[in-house]
Batch of 2 targets.
Target 1
Amino acid sequence: MRLAGGGTEGGRAGPVGVIRGMMPFASTATPPFVMNGARFKPAMSRTHPHSPAGFFAPPPSFQTRSPRVTDAHPTTPDPRSAPLLEVRNLRVSFPGPAGTGTIGAVQNVSFSIERGRTLALVGESGSGKSVTALSILRLIHGPGQLSSGQIVLRSERAGVIDIGHLDEKSGLLFKVRGGLVSIIFQEPMTALSPVHTIGAQIDEVMLLHHDVSPAAARRRTLEILAKAGISDAERRYHQYPHELSGGLRQRAVIAMALVGRPELLIADEPTTALDMTMQAQILGLIKALQREIGCAVLLITHDFGVVAQMADHVAVMHRGEIVERGDVRAVLRRPQHAYTRRLLDALPGRAGRVATSRGGNPPRP
Amino acid sequence: MNGAPELPPLLDVRGLTKEFPVYAPGIRRRVATMVRAVDGISFTIRPGESLGLVGESGSGKTTTARCILRAMRPTAGEVRFRLPDGREVDLAQAGDRQLKPIRQHAQMIFQDPFSSLNPRMSVRAIVGEPLVIHRLARGSELDQRVADMLERVGLSPDVGSRYPHAFSGGQRQRIGIARALIMRPSLVICDEATSALDVSVQAQVLELLLDLQREFGLTYLFVAHNLEVVRDFCDRVAVMRQGRIVELAPAARIFSAPEHPYTRLLLSAVPSADPDQPMNFAIGDELARIDATGGT
C-alpha cells in the first residue's frame, strides 16, 4: 500500500513551504520519481543520498557535512540486505558531580537491526537503554554528549546516513527525525501537544516529511487513526489530547509515529504506563502496523514477558553495556549472563522467587 | 492458609457503593447523572491474610481502597473494621473525629513514589510525621523509631536528612512503606504499590512487603492490575470489573481454574516469557464480546 504522496516520498528534499505552488513544475522535472518511485529509489539513493526531487534541492554535498556519510560502507553490495541500523562502539557520557569526571551512560554499545525485524533492548532503569535510543535520533543534549561511535542508518529512501556525524542543522537529520525514524515514548501526554488537536498533530508529520496537500494529509491521518483502532476517527481528529483516555492517547501517538511510514520505529517503554489489557492491545497494534508498514522496531522495555512476545532479537543492557545479545529464544531459554538470569528470575510468577521468601509459611491451598 | 479461619475478619466490607456525579455542561454545574464506580461489593479479609484486588483501570479498585480508608465517603454500604482492642467500627459511618485515632491502624502505600512524597520534607520528617500527628513519639524516641524503620525497609538510617529527589523509584517506594508502617498498622492497603517500578525492583519491594508482613503480622489489601504480581503474593484474589467483583477465589484456583470469562481474559493478557506461548493480542474484541453478552 502506498501513501497518498507515495511517488515522491523518496525524492523530495527541498524546502517545504513553497512545494505546493511548484508541484507541477517539480514533478515534470523528475518524471522517474513520480511514475516509478518505488523501483527507482534504491538505485538513485545510493548515488545521491537525498536525491533532489525538484528545482530547489541543494546539491548533495551541501547537506552532507561529513564525508563519512557515503563512504562508511563503500563495499556494501545492496543496502537492502545489510542491516537497516548499525550502531557501533557507541559511547554517551554525562558530566558527573563536580570534580568526578564523566559518567559513561552508554559504553561501547554495538548492535544492529534488520529490516522489518524487532530488536528488544532490555535492562533496568539507569542501564542506558533510553539514552541509547535517544542517541539514534541525536536527541542527547548538553551537558551529555555522544562522545564516540557510529550510528549508520541504511535507508531505502535516503541512502546510507551516518547519523552520529550529521550536523545538528542538516536537512538530513530533520528527515531522519520523525521521517525515517520515529519514536513512541512511555507517557503519551508528554509526546502530545496539549494545545493542538490530535488531527493537526498527525497531519503535521505528513506535511513536514511528505509532499502532500493538507487535504491529503487529513485523509491519511483519518486512515491511520482508524487503523490504530480509534473508533469514530472523524470525531477524534478534532479532539484535544486531554479529552482522550490513556489508551486512546497512546494509540494516537502510535498513529502519529507511523503515519509517515518510518523505516525504524523506536518504542521506549510504550506500555509501561498502561494496564495489562491495554498493554496487550497496544502491543498487538504495534505488531500489526509493523507488519503492514514493514518497518523495523527497536523496543525498549524492562519486561522479559514483553520481549518474548514481541522481539526477534534481544540485547540485555546493564550499567551502560550490552552484557548479552542474541536470538530471543536462545537468550530466554539459555541465558548466559548472570544479570540476564537475574532479570528473568525477577519476573512475577517465576517459581522459587517469592515462594522462597515466604519461608516458614505453609503452602497455600 | 495464612489467617486461621476461626478468627473474625479484620475487615468486613458489605454492599459498598460509591457514586460520582456527572455534571451537565454549563456554569450551573447541574448534576446530570450519577456514575456508579463501585457497585455494591462485599468481601472480608482475615487477620494476616493478603487479598488481591485486580482489575483494569476504571474498574473501581482504587475507589474501593479509598472508600475503605475513608479518603472518600461511600454512598452506601458498610466497612466493618476490627480494632486491635477487639471493638468493631463501621468506617463508612464514622465521623472525622472518630476516624482520626482509627487511622493509625489502617494505612496506605501509594503507586507513584514520585508524587506521593512531599519534595520539601526530609526523609526523616516524612517517615516521622505520622508519629507526630498521632502524638505517639517525640524527641529522641521519634528519631530512634524513624532510624529503626528506615533500616527495616532497607535504607541506611543516615539518609534521614536527605530529600526525596535524591532517591531512585525503588528507594522512594521504601520511604513510602516506612511512612505507612511506622505506626504498626494492622491493615495496609497497597494501591498499585509496585506498578511504577522495574520488574527487578518490583520483585525486591514485593519481597520486602512479605518480610514485613511476617514480622509485623500485617494484613494486606493489594490493589493491582497485573494478575501475575498477586499470584505469589496473595492468599485470595478478587477480580473487579465495572464496579463489581466478578470472581473471588483462592489465588491458586484463580490461576489454575478461573471460572469467570473475564478472569480468563485477564490471564490471557499476561505476556508470557516463552516466545512460543503468544499472549492474547486480540483482547479488545473479546472484551467487547463479554460486554455484549452481559459478562456471563
Note: Residues 1-77, 351-365 of chain A have pLDDT under 50 and may be disordered.
Target 2
Amino acid sequence: MKRTPLFSAHLQAGARMVPFGGWEMPVQYRGIIEEHRTVRAAVGCFDVSHMGEFEIEGPGALATLQRLTTNDVAALEIGQVQYSLLCRADGGIVDDLTLYRLAEDRYLMVVNAGNIDKDWTHVTTAVPADGARWRNVSDATGLIAVQGPKAEALVGRLADQDVTRIGYYRFAHGKVGGVAALISRTGYTGEDGFELYVAAGETERLWKALLDGGRADGVAPIGLGARDTLRLEMRYALYGNDIDDTTNPLEAGLGWVVKPAKGDFLGRAAIEAMRAKGPARKLVGLEMADRSVARHGYPVVKDGAPTGIVTSGTFGPSVERSIALAYVATAHGAVGAELGVEIRGQAKPARVVKTPFHPPKVKKG
Amino acid sequence: MANVLPDLRYTREHEWAKKEGGRIRVGITAYAQEQLGDVVFVELPKVGAKLTAHQAFGVVESVKAVSDLFAPISGEVADANAELGQKPETVNQDPYGKGWMLVVSPSNAKEWEQLLTAAQYEEFLAQGAH
C-alpha cells in the first residue's frame, strides 16, 4: 500500500486510515458529516497527493493530446484548466482528468490515483507521441485541496500574490506559506477553492501552514469520506463508481466534454454512433423517500421490473436526505420518474431529480 | 478504548442488553457506533414483532456502511425507539441512553446468562475482535 507525504501527519491528527485505490488514506478525522459541513460553511484541507500527474512537452504535445482526450485542447489557453476524458476505441472511459496548459508546448495531466499505471500505459502506447515526451511526475508531486467559502481568504493570506485574480478553472504559479506551488482554482466539492500542487517534500510544510494559518477561519483536515459526500451532492462523477471502462461519456452525462468537431480522437466513432442512436441508459440523480442509503450495485426497479443499477449513494449532509446516482433505462430516467431501489430485498421508493442535488458555489468567471 | 457500562450484558456483534424489571432494553455499544461513524438511518421492527436470539432484527446505516443489528435475546418487541427515525445521530451521541433501540419481552430467560458480561465484552474488545 502506498502512502502520501502526509501519512504521519494524518496519524498524528487521529485520522482513521483506509485502503483507497492502492493507497492508505484518511477516511475521516472527526466524523464525515462534521467535516462535510466544515467545507460547506468554512474551509477544509484535503490531502489528494495520491492523484497522478503526467507532463507532456514538445511541439507534438497538442496533437498527441487531441488524439488522446475528448475535449478540445486547442481551446485551452496557457494558465487555463480543462476537464476531459481518456476513452478507449469503443468509447469506454479509461479515466476522467484535468488538463493544465503550463506553456506553449507543455501540459500537465492530472488523473485518478487508482488509474495511474493503467493511464500511463494508455497515454504512452495508445497514440504515438511524435515530437513530444511524457514524464510521470506523480511521486514527485504533492497535492492539497483547500475548499470552502473561506478558502480564498485563507490561501490569499498565505500567498505571495493576489489569488482573487485567479478565475475558475485557471491557475497561477506562486508561493503559498513560503512553498512554491501551482495555484489552481479548481476542486471536487462545489465550493470555491484551490488545489495546490507542490513538490512532494514540501507537502507537509504547506499542510501545516494552511492548518495553522486558518485557525480563525475554522479550518480542519477533511477525509475521503466527506470528499465523497461533497462531490456526490454536486453529481461529480467518481471513477470506478459512476464511470469506468464499460461506460460511455454520453450515458454518464459527460457529452459536454466530448468535442467531435475538433477532429479524430480515440473513441470518437463509437461515441458518435451512440449519439446518433441515443444512449439506451443514462446516469440520473435519485432521491430516496426515506433515509435508507442506496449503495453502489443495488438494483433499480420500475414497477417491480429491473431498469438499472445504483453507482453511488449516500446520505447528503447538506441536502439532508438520502441521494444516489444510478444508470437507468433512458425511458425511465426523466426528472420526476418514480422508481424503486432494492434495499435488503425491498423496493424502496426513489424519484429521479435534477442534479446537482445542492447548488454549486464555485467562483464565476 | 470505548466505554463499556458495568451493569449491562453484551453480544459479540456489539449490542448491549439491560434488565428493566421483566423486560430487556437493547441498543448498540459505544464501540459499535464509533466503528460505524455517523449514523444516518436506523431500521427497527414494529411493536409486537418476534425476535430470535442471534438473528438480525434491523439495520443501522452510517454514511460509509450498513450493518445488521442482532437480537441479544428471543422475545417480542414491546417498544421501539421512534425518535431514531428523525434523529439517527442520537445513536452516536448517546448509545447507552437516548440512542436505545428496542425494549423486548423475553421468551427465554436463560438466554440472559449466555450474554457476555461487561468484563467479558471488554476482554473481547481488547483482543481486537470485530
Note: Residues 298 and 344 of chain A are 9 Å apart (CA to CA).
